[in-house]
Amino acid sequence: MTATTTVSLEAHLNERIADGRKVLLPYVTAGITDDWVDLVEAVIDAGADAVEIGIPFSDPAMDGTTIQEASVVALDRGMAPAQALDELRGREYGVPLIAMTYYNLVYRYGHERFAADAVEAGVRATILPDLPMEQAGDWATAAAEHGIENILLAAPVTNDDRLAQIVERTEGFVYVVSTMGTTGERSDVDDAASVLARRVKAAGDRPAIVGFGISGPETAVAASRESDGVIVASALMRKVLNGESVEQAASFVGEMRAALDAAYPAN
Question: What CATH superfamily classification does 9-260 receive?
Answer without folding.
Answer: Aldolase class I (3.20.20.70)
